[in-house]
Description:
By secondary structure, this protein is mainly α.
Amino acid sequence: MAGLTTGGPNVDVSLLYEINSLARQAPGWCDRAVSLTGEYGIPLALVLLVLWCWRGARRADEATAAESFAALVWAPLAAGLALLVNAPLREFVGRPRPFRQHEGLQVLDPGPGTGLTTGLARTDFSFVSDHATLAMALGVGLFVANRRIGLVGIGLALVEGFCRVYTGVHYPTDVIGGFALGTAVVLVLAPPALALLTPVVGALNRSARAGWLVRSKVRAVPLAVDLTQAPTPPAGQRTHESDLAA
Length: 246
């Protein structure tokens, strides 16, 4: 399994070198920005997107708010499940990091912790990318809850994949595999997951203490206007009309 990219030139390795070569041409501040964006920035942005989507869902009507909240709960659960699935998958494939197999790569992210969940040194395995898996799972999960915000999340996941190849810590196929894994876990398991989560969310919505999590209780109530009654004129105008009638 480790020989996925060890035997001669191929598209995967060629694309890795082409994208990673951009790091040699870019200024140092740009490399640091890309590294931090891929490692921390985009995952944080996706979490903030989930919170933003939740804020908007709470203002919807009762049925829509419950469905959106259930989908938003499923998004991080699916991302965590995808990472759990990836842990044995990485061990089974056993693909070394690209800088272990190929020379001349510009590795921009030195130090421990390249794996989002492993916390190991940079000798851990490469396929599939945890960051790409997490980002795409959150993006697709957001799309299930809110298509417009979900498209932004999917776009951020694509940028995350680019950053991981740019920094030299993943092959392009590591990223593509992460995208596929995150998407598959979210969409394949969404029907049974939402079937289980929706009644739980409904019960939560009916709770006096925790209902605010699902739906905002503060609403602007429009005043009822009786159109059959003519508006009452001011006091001064009524006096003037009475004098004219007399």
